[in-house]
Amino acid sequence: MRIGVLGGTGPAGRGLAARLAAAGHDVVLGSRDPDRAVAAAEALGAAWPGHALAVRGTGNAEAAEAELVVLATPWEAAAATVRDCVDRLDGTPLLCMANALTRTDGEFQPLVPPRGSVAAGVQAAVPAARVVAGCHHLPAKDLADLDHALDVDVLLASDHDHAKEAVADVLAGIDGLRPLDAGSLSSAAAIEAFTAVILQLNARYKTRASLKITGL
Ligand SMILES: NC(=O)c1ccc[n+]([C@@H]2O[C@H](COP(=O)([O-])OP(=O)(O)OC[C@H]3O[C@@H](n4cnc5c(N)ncnc54)[C@H](OP(=O)(O)O)[C@@H]3O)[C@@H](O)[C@H]2O)c1
Description:
The protein is of the alpha/beta class. The chain has eight helices and ten strands.
């Protein structure tokens, strides 16, 4: 599948891109500056020569011309970035991994963005897109290290069942990653906010924690 990553030059986008490309997808990193995306894609390929990753770089709008689009910008830029690509996103599953967080007195705190979650704000900004909230809790460093064995759950929330299934199918192709259906987009508020708790655990226990649900 051709997968575009908006904001793909950052650690989160690059990390997920590495895993998606290692799973056999054709991945296009997007950036506001196409040269930066080209350099990031080359660096990714050079870091993992044995995997022959199919990754290239371009501008965000061109990256959005894909069967699945990942949104990996800071939360404040999420809706505007997607709005700039609106012509290319009609009906496209759009995986939004942005978290609205701040750090106050050394503690991570969730922010409440307009409409309750970043993903809901993006969905409202671009109604034609099929927003799926997910991948919020995955540590970018572990994603980017293809030698690191993952053992994590990813909670997915969306008002578009087919888009959620499409994203789940793609994520299930990544070794050690279990996508879970967490319901409608209204769940995105709790999922995004919980990232602050995970980052707090990371700081407290000096680790890179992630999420694993038991009992399923
Ligand atoms: N880091 C993690 O471990 C992790 C894990 C899960 C989810 N997330 C979430 O994923 C998102 C990306 O995380 P990150 O750590 O990769 O963030 P980041 O490095 O701050 O930003 C990612 C990319 O977004 C683009 N960007 C920055 N400011 C922008 C703006 N004002 N307008 C448009 N594009 C802008 C930049 O690319 P260009 O300058 O090349 O355009 C940047 O490389 C965040 O919302 C974060 O909460 C992060």
